[in-house]
Automatic annotation (TrEMBL):
It comes from Dyella dinghuensis. Keywords: Membrane, Transmembrane, Transmembrane helix. The lineage of its organism: Bacteria, Pseudomonadati, Pseudomonadota, Gammaproteobacteria, Lysobacterales. The keyword Transmembrane applies. This is Uncharacterized protein. The chain crosses the membrane at residues 44-64, 91-110, 117-135, 155-175, 187-212. The keyword Transmembrane helix applies. It comes from the Bacteria.
Amino acid sequence: MSRIETIPVDQPLVDTLVSGLTYPLRGAALATCLVLTVLHYADLIPFVGALISIALWAATWRYAADCLLHTSHGYFQPPDVVIQVNSAQGWWLSLIHVLGFVFCILYAVISPHTFPLFLVLVILVLPAIDMSMALDGHALTALNPVHWVNIITKFGAAYLIPVIINVILSALMFVSMRWSAQLPNLLAQPVACFFVTYLIILGFHLMGVMVYQRHEHFGLVPEAQELVAESGQNDDQQLLARVAAIEASDPDTAIALLVERMQGRHAPAEFHQAYQRLLRKQGHREALLEHGHIWIAALMADGEPRRALGVLQGCSEDDPDFMPDDPSTVHQLADLAGRLGMSRLGLRLCMGYLARWPRERDAVSCGLLAVRLLSGPLDRPAEAQVLLAKLMATYSEHPQHDDMHILQLKLQSSPGTT
């Protein structure tokens, strides 16, 4: 199980606000903001654009409701677009916010003089409605004024925090829409929609944090805390703290503790990093490189090639000739290094592959990748042509021989080659 990031129950308000600013820009929340922003271009379609806009804003509140509920269970990261909860909660929240917006417009037309008072009332009760829906999932309960008072009483003066946040976010929405209106229409639409979507998700997340920090008042058992307890994550943190405390005075015991943990259930990356740090500090080079092989293989099996490439870089600092012992892994990491602009590392992996496994199925692919790296980002076209000629001679019957010939013609016609 991957590490579960949780929100500290006693997190100060300032830290909550600062951390919350990046919440809509993390993981699935950012993807949702971007997708909804692009889809809002459909608002410009005559006649049906208004209906599409309503549906998209309903989807925005639906996801924001998921964020509130997800956060109220202690999760630091945003939820995926669909999580396993009572979907009616999100749809009811969407409907309540849409109706609230419609009522505000109607009230402003019918009674403009008392509209500010009505708007203040709406701003005051919306946080209670949102949190009630997240906790209970019952629309009739959430719309009950008695229940509003009950929630406000449980929060006390702290209830003013989400109210103030709602006011600030509403003002920011208004400012962003006014500012974006000065832009060309095709640019104003996505800018305004992105900012408003960002602020809606931010507001619901912050309310979710407040619910989470007072979960015991509402009989809520945070799911994230239960999962952390089941996974032994807290035990892992205590073990890492113990290792850090004794590593200077008793490094051998610290190393033994890490080894024992890594031999058990799936160990988080922190254990591998601490183990490598201690081995490097103690000068255990062979053990360090052996662990590098094991860790890279585990990361590749878990579908984390980027992290495996990082481990490979670290091991290469200890041994410039370090090479994973699986040819498939070397090929994948060489290709990834080339795509990430790590051309020298990619070339070293390709050449190492050719030297160690010249008859493996990916040998020609690695060779061609090396040629492209030499002729392209490394700007060594003469070496590229020499290597390509060797490949063509060695693998004259290979199915990719035509590809090699095409690449040879391309290199010969490139400026700066002879």
